[in-house]
Specification:
Family: Belongs to the Skp family.
Strand content: 5-15%
Protein name: OmpH family outer membrane protein
GO cellular component, one term: cytosol
Order of helices and strands: HEHHEHH
Radius of gyration: 31 Å
CATH class: Alpha Beta
Helix content: over 70%
GO molecular function: unfolded protein binding
InterPro entries: Chaperone_Skp, Skp_dom_sf
Structural class: mainly alpha
Number of domains: 1
CATH topology: Protein Binding, DinI Protein, Chain A
Strand order of the largest sheet: 1-2
Number of strands: 2
Amino acid sequence: MKKSIVAIAIAISLFSCNKAEEKTTSEKTAYIDTVKLMDEYTESKDLQAKFEEKSKVMGRELELEIKKFQDEADNFRRNAQANGPEWAQRKGAELQKKEQQLTYAQQAMSQQLQKEAAVERDSVVSKVRKYIKDYGKKNGYSYIYGTGDAATVLYAKEGYDITEKIVKELNDNYKAPEKTETKDTAKAEEKK
């Protein structure tokens, strides 16, 4: 009796293993090249351009301060001997303080830009992840893997790559913010 129960249990477990194997092979899977996705996604490109421009603007302001400092330092070098050691020591200390302030300002600007960019980049990544999740559910995928910087797929057949579809749909759904410069220019032209 015990032998027949064990035999039945083994048969059931083998039968259920075969069913599980059949189930997993029929799962619909795909992968997305996440680096390519973020490189080709218009919102991601717009975000990158926005922070490059913001960096240039902030950098120009800082460059003006650096130029003033360099002019002051050049003036100091030219006049140090003529104005005496006491003046040179006092002016040298002032210049060191200004140089330190410029260094701090440069670091603060860089940190501010990195922090702002990270927050907005995280928002874009979050939107993309939600979109991929919804896309997967809507299209009957069991799994959608990501490749790229944090690769979770080491190999996949080309036919499973849905990166282009996702990029196209994301770009089709993305509405770029209107540029304020264009509006201001148009308003100025209307007044003429």
